[in-house]
Amino acid sequence: MHDASDPVVVIAPDGTVVDASDDIGAVVDRDPAALRGDPFATVLTDAEPGEGYERLRERSDAPDADVAWGDASLPVRTEHGPTSVLFDVHAFEVDETQYLAATCRVSEPPAVADRELRRLRAERERVERVDALVRDVTRATVDADDRRAIERVVCERTTDPDPHAFAWFGRPRLASSAVEPVAWAGSGPGSPEGYLDVVEVRTDDSAAGRGPAGRALDTTDVTTVTDVRDAPRFGPWREAALDHGFRSTAAVPVALDGTVYGVLCLYATETDAFDGVADALDDVGRIVAKAIRSSEQRTLLYADTLLELELRVTSGARLVEATGDLGCTLSLEGFVPSGDGRSMLYVGVADCAPARVLDALADAPSHARVVRGTGDGGLLELSFEGDDIVSTLAAAGARVDTATVAGGEARFVVQTAPDADVRGLVDHVRRRYPDADLVSKREIERQPEATASVRDDVRDRLTDRQHTALRTAYHAGYLEWPRESSGEAIAETMDVSPPTFYQHFRAGERTLFGAFFE
Length: 518
Description:
Elements: E1 8-11, E2 17-20, H1 25-28, H2 32-35, H3 40-43, H4 51-60, E3 73-78, E4 81-94, E5 97-107, H5 110-143, H6 147-158, E6 166-173, E7 178-186, H7 195-198, H8 212-219, E8 223-225, H9 235-243, E9 248-256, E10 259-268, H10 278-302, E11 305-313, H11 318-326, E12 329-336, E13 344-350, H12 354-361, E14 365-374, E15 377-384, H13 389-395, E16 399-406, E17 409-416, H14 422-432, E18 437-445, H15 452-461, H16 464-475, H17 487-494, H18 498-517
Antiparallel strand pairs: 1-2, 1-5, 3-4, 4-5, 6-7, 6-10, 8-9, 9-10, 11-17, 11-18, 12-13, 12-16, 13-15, 14-15, 16-17
């Protein structure tokens, strides 16, 4: 009996429960052991005493008859409303005593089944609609010219053809803790764009910072509100949202690899509009973040003029603290970015032995080795857990031209696109290094490079692994004579096997030589 596929109750001739299968609780919400000895009719809350047993006895008189489930049922109440427990009953004897075995299952009434079917259909339609939105946003952001166009087009696509009533894109501002709306789109009751005139969104611990947008920016998780009328943390915006016809909302972080570009806030005129679609909305956020990053990198690569910024950091970085203690000077000689969190810095050391710098860093780097060294200088290979400041700047769309650390202070000269959001870039650095300062900003002309077209052509022909192998080998001294790093050491740095490194390196070499000789 305890191995039956459906719940089973065994009933004695006097109508009391003798035994019950372990899963009977799914039907009667009682512990099977606690049922023994109770009248079966009282197990079902809406049954009259004796009714259940007598009706089951009537069916047991003809156990072989073809009787439908509904012909032997009892009314009960569930969380969905009135329904029925349906029985398949047969009699059996033990020691000349006849017992009844009732196999039970719950049959939902048509109204409950229809309501559940409608709910499932609505959820499926939401998922299909947002999946189509993901594809549409992907196509639209590829064609956008710059960051502002990307922010505008994602708002337009998420409100046309009317999956949502209103959308706006906000950029967080660290200095003021405000989230600044920079693009919006939509139509509907109450002039939705006017909503932004009467609401404030922040990133601090105030009530205006603990809503969906603030939480999405803080956790980089999609945050939804099923019904704005009773959401506990939606108080500061409830009245304005209801006035504009909004009933549910979702805040989508636009972030990638630890870099937060902003938040996309969506509003709908019905409740539950974002149930079951958080994963798809998360895809939208990552697609937009990738598009913004690619746009900034593309602009930086081809712009005729650039912005040159000088940043200063005096605390919060282990390299800065090390120079203050040792009196040495560190300079960035190479940087090999990686999407797996193992970006490598090649740091030149002057005025002390590289080994002393490693001792001062203690366990701060996740990877560290001396590439070359003497008593008064050398080269270190370093990788830090999480983002170092060079990786942080690169992720924010800036290219580090020079970086020098000495006397407990780091200075970075970086180049970025002429239309870059400088305030946003500095805010991004300050999230990790709060004392970072912008020392200067100026526009410069890009210097013509005779080899630029050849280099771009070669880069396009290299795979990412080949490019990483060549760049790592170059900065780590593998191409020097005598070699400063072995192939095995480069392989360990790349976290691959030596044969894999050699394979990527040789393939990259062939591409480089081919560009020169062909």
